[in-house]
Amino acid sequence: MMNEPIQQFLGLAMRAGQVKTGESVILNDLKKNKIKLVIVATDASKNTTKLMRNKCDSYHIPLRIFGTRAELGQALGKAERVNVGITDKGFASKLLSMIDE
C-alpha cells in the first residue's frame, strides 16, 4: 500500500506539470534526457518492468517499483497508471528519498 505523503507528493508533482505517463511518452523522453525518475507499478507486467529497467539502466536514470497501478493513478488524479516519469530534478530527488525510507 502506498503511504499518504508519497501519494500527496505525486499529486503535487502532477499539478506542477512535472509528471509524464505512458510507456511510449516516457521512453521517448528518456532518450531526450528529460526524465529524472521512473516509477513502475508493482503489478506491471514482467515485460514492462524489464523494458523500463533496461532503458533506465542504459540512460542512468533511477527506477523504483512502487505502488499498484490503481494507487499510482489515484495519486495523479487519473485512471490506472503503470509507468510514471518525473521530469523535475527536485521532485525526483524528494520522491526517491521518500520511497527509499
How are the SSEs placed, and which strands pair?
Layout: H1 4-15, E1 19-21, H2 23-31, E2 37-40, H3 46-59, E3 63-65, H4 69-76, E4 83-86, H5 89-100
Parallel strand pairs: 2-3
Antiparallel strand pairs: 1-4, 2-4
Helix pairs in contact: 1-4, 1-5, 2-3
Core attributes:
Ribosomal_eL8/eL30/eS12/Gad45; 4 strands; four-stranded mixed beta sheet; 101 residues; Ribosomal protein eL8/eL30/eS12/Gadd45 domain-containing protein; alpha+beta; Ribosomal_eL30-like_sf; globular
**Spatial ordering of strands, largest sheet:** 1-4-2-3
Our count of domains comes out at: 1
What is the top-level CATH class? Answer: Alpha Beta
Percent of residues in beta strands? 5-15%
Mean pLDDT: 95
The arrangement of helices and strands along the chain is HEHEHEHEH
Major β-sheet profile: 4 strands, mixed
Q: Can you tell me the residue ranges where pLDDT is under 50 for at least 5 consecutive residues?
A: none
What is the level-2 CATH architecture name? 2-Layer Sandwich
β-strand number: 4
Classified in CATH, the superfamily is Ribosomal protein L30/S12
Characterize the overall form.
Answer: globular
How does the helix and strand content classify structurally? alpha+beta
**Ends distance:** 14 Å
Assign the CATH topology: 60s Ribosomal Protein L30, Chain: A
Q: How large is the count of helical segments?
A: 5
CA radius of gyration is 12 Å
Protein name: Ribosomal protein eL8/eL30/eS12/Gadd45 domain-containing protein
Organism: Staphylococcus argensis
Domain Ribosomal protein eL8/eL30/eS12/Gadd45: 6-94
InterPro entries: Ribosomal_eL30-like_sf, Ribosomal_eL8/eL30/eS12/Gad45
